[in-house]
Amino acid sequence: MAKKQTAGRDNLGEFAPKFAELNDDVLFGEVWSREDKMSAHDRSLITVSSLLTQGVPQLEAHMKIAKQNGVTKDEMVELITHLSFYAGWPKAWSAFNLAKEIYAD
Asked: What pTM value is reported for the model?
């Protein structure tokens, strides 16, 4: 079962309360919790793939979530290697540096 998300309210609750609500309750509360439709593991693979191709800062947080959701180091390495040809070599290098830190233990 997906962990209750509070990052929206914690970071933007006072500044952008509706966005925080949508983040915590809809995206993570409703969409991510539909594990009868798709596992958190698979959602993490898809999310990390999307964020890697965009080159956005949220990649690090979702790579950590992916690890918590059971995505192995070998799976992450294969994901980044595969996407390097589609998303770009520099993005792959950046993603590998994050993955090395996250999967260091």
From this structure: 0.88
